Here is the input.
Amino acid sequence: MARVGVFSERGGNDPGRIARSRVARSARILYFMPTPARVAVVPEEAGLIRIEDVILPDPAPDQVVVKLFSSGVCHSQLHEIHGPRASDIVLGHEATGEVVEIGSSVDHVAPGDRVLVTWIPRTVGPPPRVPKAAVLTLANGRVAASQGIFTWADHTIADELYVVKIPDGTRTDVTCIIGCAVMTGSGAVINTAGVRAGQSVAIFGAGGVGLCAIAAARVVGANPIIAVDLDEAKLETARRHGATDTVDATRVDPVERIRELTPVDGFDMMGQPVAGVDFAFDCIGAAETARQILPAARNKILGSDERSTAVLVGIPREALSVEALDLLAHEKHLTGSIGGSSKPERDVPLYLEWFARGDLDLDSMVTRRYALDEINGAVAALEKGEIEGRAILEF
Ligand SMILES: [Zn+2]
Here is the structure.
C-alpha cells in the first residue's frame, strides 16, 4: 500500500511516471512505495558475507533511493571486512544507478535520472553540509552501519550529497568505477598534484586506482610515467594504459631504478647526483610504498626552485616515518590526496569525456564481473591479488 510522503510510481524510464513524480514533487505531496532490496551484509561476527532481503526506508528529505546497475569492488573494503566493528555493516562505495525516489528537499536529481553513487560527497553551501551515513535496518531488526553509502546491493538509499547526475545514455557498467577508482587515482594526478605536461611521475601500484592515475598522467602529457608493481602482468597492463617505463619491485629497488630513469645534471648539497621524479604517488598504502615515495621524489640543487612532491593516495594503516633530512634539504613536499581532491559534479563529466574519447579505458580496467550472490568469491579473488584493475558487481 502506498504511504503518503513518497512517490508511488515505480520502475524504468517511463516518461509518464517521471512527469507524475515531478508534479507530485512540485506540490510536495510525495507518495512512497516500500523499496525491496537485496543487500550484501558483512556480519559483525567473523564469517561470510550474507545476501539479505530488506525493505529500504522512505527517503528522508535529503535522501535519494537508487536502483543500482553496477558497483565496483574496491580494495579498501577489505580493511573494513577484516577490521573490528560494532555492528553488521553494508559496503560498496561506487556505483551507477537510476533514481527511484527522492526526499522532499532534493532538487538536483529526479526519479528516472541516471546517476553515480559515490563516497566522495558533492560540495554544497556555504555553509557546507556534512552528509549523513546510510543506516539499514535488517529483517531481523538488527541495524547495519555504512561508511556513508552502500552499493553492494540492487537498490540503495543515500544522502543526496553522494548522488551525482550523469547524462542519459551513459554506459552503466564499467562507469561505476568512476565513483572511487577514477576520482581517487586520476584526481590525485590532476587535482591534488596538478601534474603538467613534461613533468615526471612515478606511480606505485598498478591496481584500479594506480591505472587511473597512469591514465590521467598520460592525458596531461606527463613524461616519463613510471609504474611500479610486484606483478609483471599488472605492469604489462600499466604499459597499455600509458606507463612509459615499468619497474618490477620484486627484482630491483624501485627507488634506485626510478632515479636511474630520471637523471638531472648536478649535485645536491650532500654531493649526491640529482635524480627522481617530480611527483611520486603511493596508490597502495602499504608501509613500504608509503616510505618509498619520498626518496623517489627528486632531490635538488641547493638554490634551485625545483621542488618535488610525494603523494599518499592509498590508505595508510600505520604511522609513517620519513627521512626528515631528505624532506628538509630538498624542500620536498609530502602530501595526502583523499578521493583525488575531487568535486564530483565538476570531475565526473570530465572523466566521462575521457572515457568517450578513449583516454580512460574503463573497459580494460574492469577485468571481472560478478553477480551480487558471488560477492564472497569476488572478495576472495581480490584478497588473493587475482584481480587486475577492478572487479565489478552487476545487478
Ligand atoms: Zn574505493
